[in-house]
Amino acid sequence: MMRLPPFQYFAPRGVAEAVGLLAEHGAAATVVAGGTDLYPNMKRLQMEPRVLVGLRGIRELAAIRGGARDGLVIGAGATLTGVSEHPEVRAHYPALARAAGVVSTPQLRNMGTLGGNVCVDTRCNYYNQTYEWRRSIGFCMKKDGDICLVAPGSVRCWAVSSSDTAPVLWALGAEATLVGPSGERRIPIAALFRDDGIEYLGKAPGEILTELILPPVGGWRATYWKLRRRGAFDFPVLGVAAAVRLENGVCRDARIVLGAVASTPREVPEAARALVGQRLDAEVIGRAAEAAARPAKPLDNTDLVYHYRKRMTKVYVARALRELAGLPLEGLWPSGMSARAVEEA
After folding, report:
1. Taking Cα atoms as reference points, which of 258, 231, 245, 243 lies closest to residue 316?
2. Could you tell me which of 239, 270, 294 has the C-alpha nearest to residue 99?
3. pTM of the model
4. Domains assigned to the chain
5. Three-state secondary structure call for residue 342
6. How far is C-alpha 232 from the chain's CA centre?
7. Over the stretch 264-314, which tens digit does the pLDDT of each residue have?
8. How many helices (H) and strands (E) does the chain have?
9. Dihedral-angle region of residue 26 (phi above 0 means left; psi in -120 to 50 means alpha; beta otherwise)
């Protein structure tokens, strides 16, 4: 049985106190909210903090306020269940409700938070294993070793971003609020990520993600599609977030963001440009899906074979865009499976 290593736990009552605790304990400390990713990583000795600063007792971090007209502010401590079931999110930002609702299992969504999923650790076949398994192969660059076992000649780690909610927030044009020793700052969600499997977040040391800010809906519609081996529990093998702004049936703006294909959510502006100024018919969607698949270069670092994952990028982008365009989805599924069955999976 894997057990948690010893650690000291603090339960601050406010963000300022939490920031102070992180500054006091330095590199030995990390924050924890739901703990659904951190605690298993600690059991596998992938992460070894000696001090945990708990955020669950800070009420303001769980608040959701605002609406479609002025935008929505979601505290980073709001649970994934709370986000997926919130009336304003479901009505006006349904892509985020869907993404939050397909993370892991109901039990873990009740504990896990939006901020935790946005900042979830990158994953890899050679990293997400027990300590004994990793030791038997000599460890990898991400923890305790010096070679990326996915690409041994590489100078960087290729672990993949596995957040379901981050691609959607990116496609929606969200911003993030960070609070640290130097005060508060607000950045585009895209600036929160780096394309590096180890240093995958753009947060400064000691900073805490406190809220995610969604802009007014403003005519945008969005969706999220997730590929995974099982219909529940699994991390994404591919995530597709697509958002379009239509006027009289013509696409005036678009964003397409892929998850689980790189160490960061990957926006594909070439695919979006193929949509702008066009009516979203099957031919236009096909060109955009083809453009989206080009920069997707999966490696042997997650579930399913990488050439299949690359082919599915084109398929899932097409499905997402067809949904937004109101085109039929039937006929795009494996035999015996309906569009709704796949969507709910």
Report:
1. 258
2. 239
3. 0.94
4. 1-57 (3.30.43.10), 230-344 (3.30.390.50)
5. helix
6. 16
7. 999 999 999 999 999 999 999 999 999 999 888 778 899 998 889 889 999
8. 13, 12
9. left
